Amino acid sequence: METPDKIIQSCDPLDLLSKLSYLKWLMATDAFSDRDKQPFTFLEVKYALHYVMSYLLSHKLGEAANQSIQYETISTLICALAQEEINRKFNEEATLDKLSGKLQYTQKDSGELLPLFYSVPFRHILEGEDDIISAKYGCNSNDILNDFATLVGAFNNSVRAKGMKVFDFVNRFNDYCNSSALAIQKNMKSYGLFKTMSGRIGQFAEDEFDHGYPISLIKKFRKLFIRVDDILYCPDLELVPNLIVRCVERAMQQDKRQNPEWDLRMKERTEKLVNGALSHYFKGGTYHANSEFGQKEKGESDGLFEFLGHLFIIEVKAGKLSPDPVESNNTTVHQSYKATIGKGTKQCDKAENHILEHGGKFKEDGHEFRVNYDIEHIIKLVISFEDLSAVLPDENIQTPNHTILMTYFDLLIVLDYINEPILSLKYFLERRKALEHCWDISDEMIYLGLFSDDMNFTYRLNSQPFSSSADNSTNFVLDPHSFTHEIEMHYTQPERYPKPKIHLSEFQRLVLAALNGKDSISSKWAMPLLMLPTQFGDKLMLLFQRNNCHRGFAPQVGMAGFANGKHIAVMVSKKHIGEQRYIYYAIANRFFRKHGEAKEIVSLIVDGQRSHLEEIDHSRKELNYQKTLDALQQIEAKFGFRQKIYK
């Protein structure tokens, strides 16, 4: 059997790249009638494509490299490379620690931006650098996006059939698609810039190619396109939005030295993006940018965001990790990781310590202000613009009130998917809770999927029964596909897959309907009500439904305790008309007499049109009614509640 390298050496490079490119794209769709019968998967084709791209950039081809590749040969190539990758992973697992393995994975894999957000790096991240880009290349971020969108449209429209067999598609390639759709046209405004991101076949030395990490060459030299004469070919559209910021950044450098002006603007731009995202999805919140604090030991926080009595402490990291493979540059990669994520975590802790020790006094643009804070309501966030989606989700999760680590694109998906301020706040409060077991969580979407099923998912994870032999060194793996499939399918093909609904109990829906508007009651009770055990809310709603028929009236009140010793009393009732108002307070009064530790009741009132929330304090004057003796006797006779007469 021929080795993968010999197969590549014998093939027409553009024919091989074109077929792998289209196979990768179509294997993720329903274009093939026999997709599930193939000996290879979408991910294995993707790996083979990146292997071939990097190999061609670093190897000169002989005159014999002119054969059109057929199905049997391309299948052999893909499967052989997949098996080599499996063997390599198996051998590496024993030598790499968890963090090194995940850092290595991020560098081997290209990463994936979900289609609904692919315009973000072009239009939003690069927008802050428009004048620099335009001065050198005569185009701006919008031109780059439009040219890429044109390329995507041509590629998507180039396949002329569906329901075909993979064998026929490869062997009769020109009958099914137009391979010229891979070419970037010279009349595109971004052609000159794209040309800097292209490499010729055999341009780099062979020792730059790493069989274990083929995509590291693409990332190291920032080459997204293959150049033949003056024609630029784009074998993998997915690489462009994922790496475009890095590639434009490299184009702005001179002799590989960083452009200081670029760095400064990128820092400002990324911080504004995080500010904009939070302010957009948490309507009514207040964002303080670049706030200074401290006297002897001064510090600065990228962002402080106040919403419903909660405080986000935010650090934004636009810095990149070293692109070198972890295997040969372990120290360098770990140092660059600490310089970005580790530093951000320390900055969040420093701001939190200042608040707790010296109060919430800060300066913004020279003006002093104070933040409202409570140690239970502080959420620390480090937002990275590096592709670290597989590294960040389970860092520090066994530490109470840990700093949440997220990529910017994961932040966008979380906020867009939930799209309800109170629920989004609940998500972050849930994410900062400590997990009692060592969970291997490789994707933020796992948390989002868990949250979609149960808003109190931390309790669910911590309540999992495990063998008595399990300890803190035992890892428990959460399979991403079990939690993320429906969410990812929506963001991949929104026209075919509607946004999945968050599963809410009837009680939780009632709470959300009642928490309408930013007021003191909503601020105080929003999270305690949503954090109540599902069983408690279900039982309360069941009693409410049973006892609130057309003729009867019986508000239901119950009290739930929390692990920290606090409790919450909740009443569910219908709208109170006339004398019903008296019995409503009579039930509350009886509850206070029975439960001396209860000082107030939060009451959820349903009136058919809308719901609202009311707070009943045990010392509130209304509970005394201030009615005449005759009126109180009538109430007692009608409803059976004896009332104390106050003079």
Shape field: elongated
Radius of gyration: 30 Å
Number of strands: 17
Please indicate the percent range of residues in DSSP E strands (runs of 2 or more): 5-15%
How many helices in DSSP terms?
A: 25
Unreliable spans are: none
Structural class: alpha/beta
Largest sheet: 5 strands, mixed
Describe the structure.
With 647 residues, the chain is of the alpha/beta class. The chain is built from 25 helices and 17 strands. The strands form 5 sheets. Strands 5-6-7-10-11 form a 5-stranded mixed beta sheet, with helices on both faces. The chain has a 4-stranded mixed beta sheet with strand order 1-4-3-2. Strands 14-15-16-17 form a 4-stranded mixed beta sheet, with helices on both faces. A hairpin with a 4-residue loop joins strand 16 and strand 17 (611-617). It is elongated, with a radius of gyration of 30 Å.
Question: What topology does this entry show?
Answer:
Layout: H1 4-10, H2 13-26, H3 42-58, H4 71-93, H5 98-108, H6 119-125, H7 130-137, H8 141-156, H9 166-171, H10 173-176, E1 183-184, H11 191-196, E2 198-200, H12 215-221, E3 225-228, E4 231-233, H13 239-251, H14 260-281, E5 286-293, E6 299-307, E7 310-317, H15 330-358, E8 361-364, E9 367-370, E10 378-384, E11 404-407, H16 408-418, H17 421-431, E12 438-440, H18 444-453, H19 457-462, E13 475-477, H20 480-492, H21 506-514, H22 520-530, H23 534-547, E14 556-561, E15 567-574, H24 580-594, E16 600-606, E17 611-617, H25 629-639
Question: Could you provide a short overview of the structure?
Answer:
This protein has 25 helices and 17 strands.
